[in-house]
Amino acid sequence: MDRNVSRRSAQTAARFRSALEALPAEQREVFLLHEETGLSLDDIARITGVGMETAKSRLRYAVAKLRSSLAEEGALWKAQ
User: Fold this and answer.
1) CB 52 within 8 A of CB 42
2) Which of 3, 24, 26, 34 has the most neighbouring CB atoms within 10 Å?
3) Is the pLDDT of residue 69 over 50?
4) Which domains does the chain show, CATH number per domain?
5) Are 3 and 62 spatial neighbours (Cβ–Cβ below 8 Å)?
6) Residue among 68, 76, 57 nearest 19 (CA)
């Protein structure tokens, strides 16, 4: 792998970690449960003890903040 590509990948990962850490704890929790474990929003709502709409809202805000933060830093990120 090209060193520049590897360096850019490491920088993008660091930017993402930083943006993730900057999220409010509730949003970060829902985002990680959804993305890392693949849990449904229904399961996430049950596990976290909040309503389905609250879980959806937290995920939506987390994704919007991550996109905004990474766009400001010039990193590209697309929700899957």
Assistant:
1) yes
2) 34
3) yes
4) 3-72 (1.10.10.10)
5) no
6) 68
> 54-65 pLDDT, tens per residue?
999 999 999 999
CA separation for the pair 8, 26 (Å, rounded): 29
Enclosing H/E stretch for 65: helix 52-72
Six-digit token string for 48: 């976290």
Stated pTM of the model: 0.79
Taking a C-beta distance cutoff of 8 angstroms, is the pair 77, 16 a contact? yes
Pairwise CA distance, residues 64 & 73, whole Å: 14
Tell me the pLDDT tens digit for each residue of 1-32.
577 667 777 888 888 999 999 999 999 999 99
Contacts of 59 by beta carbon, 8 Å cutoff, 6+ apart: 27, 30, 31, 34, 41, 44
More confident residue, 76 or 28: 28
